[in-house]
Amino acid sequence: MTSHVPRLTSHEIHFSFELFPPRTPAGAEKLPAIVAQLAAVQPAFFSVTYGAGGSDQQGTYETVMRVIDDTGIDAAPHLTCVGSTRANIAALLQKYRDSGIRRIVALRGDLPATAVSSEAPGEFRYANELVSFIRETHGQHFTLEVAAYPEMHPQAPNPDADFDNFRRKVAAGADGAVTQYFFAADAYFDFMERCSRAGIAIPVVPGIMPITNFAQLTRFSAACGADIPRWIRLRLEQYQDDKQALLDFGLDVVTRLSSTLLDNGAPGLHFYTLNQAEPTLRLWKN
Ligand code: FAD
User: Thinking of the domain 10-285, which architecture would CATH place it in?
Assistant: First the structure.
């Protein structure tokens, strides 16, 4: 299957790099050098997760500001609304605006493990409500990215219902989307065909996860519903004790995936760097 994604010329392809706020003093010490290495290839923007793995809002804010100050490159905080109030979100948006932030990745976030109902606690239930709130309160000030799930969000009842949700986020005012990571390019092309049929024209940038650690990848994938195709899983299992073989194989697989996506019209790539420069830069160079 090939795409119906509008083709862009190569100079329009943009890359973005996702970071998380450092969780330890050692991580904080290393991050500026990692950011400098990544900034050298001039990404369109960095983004910084919020809440994932227990990071706090202040850590997200400080990391975003540090990246902007150190590199002069745009950086976007991820903003999750689950469990939050309108007043909290409004205060945070004002702080971001006052600090010169122009881009936000708007998300629902994950329900606490203790939640019993499928509905998120707090004043916002879903990301489309957050997008609407940001548009109502700040107009077009922020460029808003939302999440997209070519392989379906794990809590959605079915792919069509999940796609309807994506459509709602776009209707609410999202400027662009970044996908959950995946290893089957056809999942992305299928998603883009659905966008095309639904008249959705915002850029949907594939999220790219470098493969560097089998146990971690398996854990992440189980949590977020990303499929690791059997042939990849088997090879990674085989190389568990041979770090170099695993890195080489992972680089090959993800390079091929990235090339296929770009060759068939993906507007760019968003790399989940996991705060490591090398795996992402090797992919970027390839
Ligand atoms: P939503 O778009 O609100 O969707 C959540 C679920 O609700 C889906 O199953 C959807 O189908 C369903 N749904 C939506 N609307 C309705 C409705 N009206 N009725 C019924 N069902 C509905 N998490 C973090 O904690 N911090 C981060 O920094 C972070 N960054 C991320 C970045 C990217 C690019 C991606 C892809 C994910 C990220 N996540 C992050 C994970 C994300 O928070 C989770 O996947 C979360 O479970 C869903 O967030 P969402 O914004 O996609 O939610």
Answer: Alpha-Beta Barrel (3.20)
